[in-house]
Amino acid sequence: MSVFKISLGLGIVLLLFACNMETPRYELVWSDEFDYTGLPDSSKWAYDSEGNSAGWGNNEAQFYTEARIENARVENGILKITAINEKYGDKDFTSARLVSKADWQYAKVEVRAKVPPGRGTWTAIWMMPGGWTFNDGNWP
What we know:
This protein is an alpha+beta fold. It has one helix at residues 3-19, and strands spanning 45-47, 62-65, 72-75, 78-81, 84-88, 91-96, 98-100.
């Protein structure tokens, strides 16, 4: 038998074994489908505004508000976080910074997000360690 036939046969057998492997099952442990209207669900979300006084370490131009419907709201199944060009304290813009009230050591995370373009914006979805705060002084 030629080396090619042996290799081909072995490859087919390995492929069959791979096809029969069970895919991992995941258990949903946290979600927000945004099937309500108003402010984000306070049992699932918290506002992060602790770094406002320090400009978040990089002199950001916005002030992150808490529980302000103009900056963070849920409507039509969508969480909308809105930056507004308005004077607020010593800043020229307002926005919202939300963190989940849950954390996991290991997880498969899925996020569906539509991010509009905008000059000067930096939309981000971060996976920060649980319990981390801006005042800890170390960016993870």
